[in-house]
Amino acid sequence: MKKDTPSVSVIGMGYVGLCTAATFASRGIPTIGIDIDETRIAQIRKGQAPIHEPQLDQMLNKAVKRKLLDATNDISRAADADTSFLTVGTPSQPDGSIDLSFVKKATEDLGTALQSKQGYHLVVVKSTVIPGTTNNTVKPVLEQSSGKNVGPGLGLCANPEFLKEGTAINDALHPDKIVIGSNDKKSADQLTRLYRKFYRSRLPPIIATSPETAELVKYSSNAFLATKVSFINTIANIAQQIPGVDVNRIAEAIGHDPRIGPLFLKAGPGYGGSCFHKDLQALIRFSRQYGYDPVLLLSSEEANEEQANRVVALSKKLVGSLEAKRIAVLGLAFKKDTDDIREAASVRVIHLLRAKGAKVVAYDPMAMPNFENLFGNIIELAKSPQSALKGAECAIVMTEWDEFKKLKAKDYLAYMSEPNVIDARRIYRPEQYRELNLLGIGLGYFSGK
Ligand code: UGA
């Protein structure tokens, strides 16, 4: 690699690592992606994205063709670059704490690769890790495996990511800030230089902190966002009791207050995805180790779990007992434009419906294979929204897919045995669906009989 341009290696080609590597390469920075999964590496080398993420495929393809991105399972190649990002997973353990085994193994292998390297190398922890991990876990493992001390010859920073699934590329290209947690100026300066090269005149604000602060920024961000969702869902459940009240109007009104802000105030069936629940549980567990019970965070999680019951309660309101009733679930993904069903509200709702004896049939434009892989054939999966609705006594919209927004009242009427519809994502304007028995989360309004 050319000496005058910065170069990076990214260890862990999961969704964060891949998007990070693809965006660095797209900005002309030579990048090596590293993973132990050979199939994944083979796919990346062909310029194909092994996960579904808008823009990623094109970006990888272009970067591979321009020879700016290479992928390998040989971690010794990490030393060829001047900065290595650790982007391996930190999955949840049964007690809520995070499993650091991938972080430790990747650090150890990277350290070994750095043993014979001449010159400065910077290691950057991008994986989501609890405060103290960079200095108390990564640093000793790195020092031992490399035979070098972190300091003038070997840099170490924490640099969390804030990418959202479905908009990860755009988020990586236009972040609202960059958080750099470092112990010394040299490492922070190298990372800042790299981002300066990446963003040029559009460098976002850089927040320089200690590694521990940077690590906690990531958890605080997700804890706040999850709490915002649980807050608006709480207001939605209150609003629903009052005729003529609509939580969407409340969100619109309070969102004008700059202290509150308009985003993340969409009431729904509860948050899902691989991050919020996992990160809140890890933060709760971490906090308890210090003897502090973070009741607010516990409540955010409890309110989120409870929201699935609210959705089922709405369907019971329309059809009475759910025993042997055919219920169509529209949407399995935890949000639209992804095939990800991890911690999805749909899964909680489906389990509750089945426990009440309902016969569930579901449709999702992308997430059905993932659902089947995880749960087998516990429910019927339909080939289209129409065939899911066929003969159903109640339909529940669980994901805000555009495909479902296009369904008109007549579509529901044409296929369902009873036009009972729960809009758990509030994608419909009730006045346009008057022919249906429509109930919505946070909608104190009933359009039907
Ligand atoms: C989240 C954060 O938004 C990212 O900043 C963070 O980097 C990422 O976690 C992570 O830690 O990796 P993501 O899980 O992709 O991103 O999804 P979000 O778009 O944040 O949505 C999370 C859940 O909240 C979804 O189920 C969504 O439907 C729900 N949500 C979101 C609402 O119910 N209402 C809202 O107003 C917003």
Structural account:
This protein is an alpha/beta fold and 449 residues long. 43% of the residues lie in helices and 13% in strands. It has an 8-stranded mixed beta sheet with strand order 3-2-1-4-5-6-7-8, with helices on both faces. A 6-stranded parallel beta sheet has the order 11-10-9-12-13-14. β10, α13 (368-375) and β11 (380-381) form a beta-alpha-beta unit. The longest helix has 29 residues, at 211-239. The N and C termini lie far apart (71 Å). The relative contact order is 0.08. The site of uridine-5'-diphosphate-glucuronic acid has 19 residues, from α8.
How would you write the strand order of the largest sheet? 3-2-1-4-5-6-7-8
Strand content: 5-15%
Mean pLDDT score, rounded? Answer: 96
Q: Helical amount among residues, as a percent range?
A: 40-55%
Shape: elongated
Strand count: 14
Largest sheet: 8 strands, mixed
Task: Indicate the radius of gyration in whole angstroms.
Answer: 24 Å
Which small compounds were modeled alongside the protein?
uridine-5'-diphosphate-glucuronic acid
Poorly predicted residue ranges: none
Query: End-to-end span in angstroms?
Result: 71 Å
Along the chain, the helix and strand elements come as EHEHHEEHEHEHEHEHHHHEHEHEHEHHEE
Q: Which structural class is indicated by helix and strand composition?
A: alpha/beta
